[in-house]
Amino acid sequence: MEIIVSDTKELSGKEAAVRGAGLIRKAIAEKGEANIILATGTSQFEMLNALVKEDIDWSKVTGFHLDEYIGLSREHPASFRKYLKERFVDIVSPKEFHYIDGEADAAAECIRLDELISKQPVDVAFVGIGENGHLAFNDPPADFETEKAYIIVQLDEACRRQQLGEGWFAALDEVPDKAISMSIRQIMRSKAIICSVPDLRKAKAVRDVVSGPVTPDVPASVLQQHKTTWIYLDKDSASLLE
């Protein structure tokens, strides 16, 4: 795991995108295609803004959706399907993009996505870290053992308050309490992981993830065990690191 600290979140996002783009181009050069995972949330704004401007043959790239609320309309401002469609898919037109349908039967949707991703090993996963240390929507204590690629998860209050604080919802009771999330082990199967974590509100989580023990109580701490992970921070999110 390598830590890269930039002066601003704009620069941090740009550097994360450049690294990720290089890995995507490398995969395309070696095997004619690339498979990626994309995260959402305000922490990914700068990275995605830069990534869509990179010189990549997107017609050879297949994308997978990291997580989505259960029961939330795709038209809702907080829908991650809406987020990815507007900020990525509609801009670059990838070969395929496999959304999580949060309005479908959740158990059946997990099975459908499991089958899809099992056939397409992931070259690059773009992820973030939650204020509570979550990785995707795997809130603490996270399931480190399941081999399933996608699982149904219960969102804790800290996670739901983060979504409220980021402005996606008007009130806490509007934030769904369940979601479909890519599992920890599936994320860790990715050949490379690009983790973008700007902002002061993430500083404690970053410190716990980078400096603390690997534990389900800090789900993203598992990234310490992935050999090709880069964590991109700005000065604020890195402020509690020694």
Question: How large is the count of helical segments?
Answer: 7
Question: How many structurally independent domains?
Answer: 1
Distance between the termini: 16 Å
CATH architectural designation:
3-Layer(aba) Sandwich
Give the class from helix and strand content and strand pairing. Answer: alpha/beta
Query: The biggest beta sheet, please?
Result: 7 strands, parallel
Strand fraction: 15-25%
Strand order of the largest sheet: 1-10-9-6-2-3-5
Order of SSEs: EHEHEEHEHEEHEHEHE
Shape: globular
Tag the structure with descriptive keywords.
single chain; 242 residues; alpha/beta; Rossmann fold; seven-stranded parallel sheet; three-stranded antiparallel sheet; 7 helices; 33% helix; globular
